[in-house]
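Example (one chain per record):
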Amino acid sequence: MADQLDRIVKLAESGRIRVNLLPFDRSPHPLLEGLVTLMWFEDQPPMVAEIQGSMDVVLSEAPARPRTGEKIGP
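Predicted structure:
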């Protein structure tokens, strides 16, 4: 596991990835239980996200211009 963590650190330092940590005292992120599929359609401008959880599937339409850090979806 130490080798894996070293690899993550090197990738983060190179700028190829961004590492975000979730404190143990917070609830788990919804995407830990499923997948998200981002879809763009030429004839329908805003992006659509299909969020698959363990119990449901949610379709969410993004605003035309999301702001940095803006939550998109339910």
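Caption: The longest helix spans residues 2-14.
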